[in-house]
Task: structure prediction
Amino acid sequence: MSLYQSIARPLLFRLDAEVAHELGLGALALADLSPGLAAAARRRTNADRPTLRTHVAGLDFPNPVGLAAGLDKNAEAIVGLLALGFGSVEVGTVTPRPQPGNDKPRIFRLPEHQALINRMGFNNLGAQAMAGRLRELPWRPAPIGVNLGKNKDTPNEAAVDDYVAGARLLSPLADYVVVNLSSPNTPGLRALQEPQALEALLRAVRLEVKGRPLFLKIAPDLGDEAVDAAVDVVRACQVDGLVCTNTTITRPFEHPLAAETGGLSGRPVAQRSTEVIRRVYARTGGALPIIGVGGIFDGAEAWAKIQAGASLVQLYTGFIYGGPGLVHEVLDDLEQRLTEAGLSSLQQAVGRNA
Ligand SMILES: Cc1cc2nc3c(=O)[nH]c(=O)nc-3n(C[C@H](O)[C@H](O)[C@H](O)COP(=O)(O)O)c2cc1C
Result:
């Protein structure tokens, strides 16, 4: 058990989930004061891992384990997060205008299931504030993704304008861009995953995201045919890849908090998210890069997603339960699995069990 799990987590878990979240993020944001120290921390813990370096969608990733969107919504703690060893950090979801999100409480822990339910509702400081943060970023040892959303009060008919505005301002400051149409907490958002609306939106954003890879993040609640349809649109629109998946609105268990509205994340979403990865991989014959996310708490789950077809993975809920040491735990485990399988690079493992 790590220091985080034995000391910090019991203290943090006595607090309201969002307060604990803000405390943790605030602590990480302090690393901004000393990028030199952060770089030293990353060097010390991030021993060179040549077999885990990977090249995806034209970008070099020092390792495949990234931070998923939603933790650093305003790009406030990138330096601290990179110091922990993440191979990429996805910031956002950011909307064109600042918005407060839903009423609190809006995030709930379900420790029995190693899960969270959240209905944050894209609380964020807006695209301008994020642009300022990214312009000032002193240190970029790994790709930074920007995850785009729409404001709650923008009707779906005008959603494309929000995504285009976000892309125009932020894509020049990002290494890659993600269109998020899969949050369950912005009313009507997920309807934009339907082929016709999706195509119009992705074509417009694609024109705006110049010379940068563009990804679409999809929900685990799409049926298999809907996943196929989304993949076909993504390919037709020259989008570079998919992030699979966001949180689920299903509740595959009984729990006093199961009736809370919102997206469920963590262990219970792992299996479906891996199935979606496998489905996307099969539909494209492996031609489209996949970022696999959902319920990664250890190397075994990361490995399952890579073997199902993910070139990169991300985690969020595992980080809340496992703490900062989880990144290196997963990386150590992946290195060992590659050696055991007799493989010399991560790329060789992608889709081996698709
Ligand atoms: C509290 C919370 C907030 C989230 N906010 C966002 C968000 O703003 N944008 C987004 O694309 N995904 C968001 N997510 C989804 C995660 O990025 C991820 O796709 C999902 O939680 C599954 O991964 P996990 O099981 O490792 O958490 C959020 C998840 C949580 C738990």
